[in-house]
Amino acid sequence: MFATGIENSIPTINNGSTRVDQMEASDHYRRWKEDFDCVEDLGITFLRFGPPLHKTFLAPGQYDWEFADLTMNDLLRRDITPIVDLCHFGVPDWLGNFQNPDFPHLFATYAGAFAERYPWVQLYTPINEMFICAVFSAKYGWWNEQLQTDRGFVTALKHLVRANVLAMMEILKHRADAIFIQSESSEYFHADSPAAIGPAESLNSRRFLSLDLNYGRRVDSEMYEYLLDNGMTRDEYRFFLHTRMKQHCILGNDYYRTNEHRVHPDGRTEAAGEVFGYCEITRQYHNRYRLPIMHTETNLREGETGQEAVQWLWKEWANVLRLRNVGIPTVGFTWYSLTDQVDWDTALRVQNGNVNPVGLYDLDRKIRNVGKAYKQLIRDWRDVLPASSMCLAVPLVPTSRSQWPDAAQAERLRTEKPAESGNPEVA
Q1: Sign (positive/negative) of CA torsion 358, 295, 252, 40?
Q2: Over the stretch 48-60, which tens digit does the pLDDT of each residue have?
Q3: Where are the compositionally biased (Basic and acidic residues) regions (predicted)?
């Protein structure tokens, strides 16, 4: 699965008073048809995409599907398979933030409503980067609740993962063969000195918490004490341990140069740059969870030479091929995202309006060098990899062959010219 994505991040900053909306910053709301044209031009048939949660989920049981209908129906018509991203770093104002204990149940009802409305969708990322969302919102104090406590972090984490698990359960009621591709940050913490070994080991255990809970894997004794000391109850822990959804999942992991950290004796961390790289860190995650792998996010800025991002694409792709060559089932690769991003350099916590040249296209929808390189990479490798695969194929049902309740309507949506405006209904 060669993929890209259109980011729908919506965290709040300034104590919840300011919404940071990446779809708005990239002008996707106005230019979504052009963006889908770009996806097709690249030869990409898988797209990480989802409607903005804060504009769609209006209240318990109340939804505004207009933008979702326009975009999802157009993806169906184009036969582009969405990997639907339902929650990306934020919630609607009426839900507050990730400290809200009602969030898991309410979000699961939204996921179920989405799956009922779009029964042809098979691939989902219910909640994007649960670990990063909890860290940035409740440990670093950057987003949403803007807390800087371990208790805040554990509370956000348990709510995010529980919401993810419950959403998977609800989606499966409407699509029994749904596949869930976690998009989770892959991290590593390097000890700066012997005195930093202890803090680094603790952080290297903590990086697995979201996926351990999501997949029902027992955490180690230190992390168990950490969770209980910071507000998780034994019953909450048992819920994760006994709710096994792993058999429906692909381990999607993200890797950027900022994912490796240097740890000091007092626990402070700083960016370490690329030390181990994607292949080695992904081996650690695969050894822990034994699931098929998909590289779900990476990028690099286009620098002065114009080739920096191209070289990073080549390096990440070489890492993906290495995983496959050593027998780790690896089923997809993603350059994220389709267009440049705004204020990624400050992790969306400050609105400077800085355009970060990390996309396959710039914000004028002009293809970048890395876009041309990715297009060629897909053309070169698309037909080679299935023949040399060392694992079973992912059981995907192409959108063009989905079994809809109303097959005639599905065929009409695939073939007719998309509406310019309005709110087309989906069976």
Answers
A1: positive
A2: 999 999 999 999 9
A3: 409-419
427 falls within a domain: no
Spatial separation of the C-alpha atoms in residues 91 and 103, rounded to whole Å = 9
Look at residue 404 in the predicted model and tell me its pLDDT: 55
Q: Which domain holds residue 203?
A: 2-415
**Domain CATH number, residue 141:** 3.20.20.80
- Tokens representing 281 are 């860190």
3-state secondary structure of 59: strand
Tokens (6 digits) for 392: 């079973």
Q: Judging by beta carbons within 10 Å of its beta carbon (0-12, 13-18, 19+), is residue 422 exposed, middle or buried?
A: exposed
Average pLDDT over residues 170-184: 97
Tell me, yes or no, whether 334 lies in a domain. yes
172 neighbors 222 (Cβ within 8 angstroms):
no
DSSP assignment of 350-378, as one string?
Answer: S---PEE--SSB-TT-PBPHHHHHHHHHH
Count structural domains, the chain: 1
Amino acid at 212: D
The rounded distance, in Å, linking the Cα atoms of 27 and 35 is: 10
pLDDT tens digits for 369-407?
Answer: 999 999 999 999 998 877 565 555 788 888 776 665 444
Q: Which amino acid, 2?
A: F
Q: Where are the alpha helices (DSSP H) in 27-149?
A: 28-42, 53-56, 66-78, 103-117, 130-138
Copy the structure tokens of residue 131: 């670990």
Q: How do residues 233-281 score in pLDDT, each as one tens digit? A: 999 999 999 998 999 999 999 999 999 999 999 999 999 999 999 999 9
The answer to whether 71 and 28 are in contact (CB under 8 A) is no
Judge whether 73 and 33 are in contact, CB under 8 Å.
Answer: no
321 part of a folded domain: yes
Q: Is residue 350 part of a domain?
A: yes
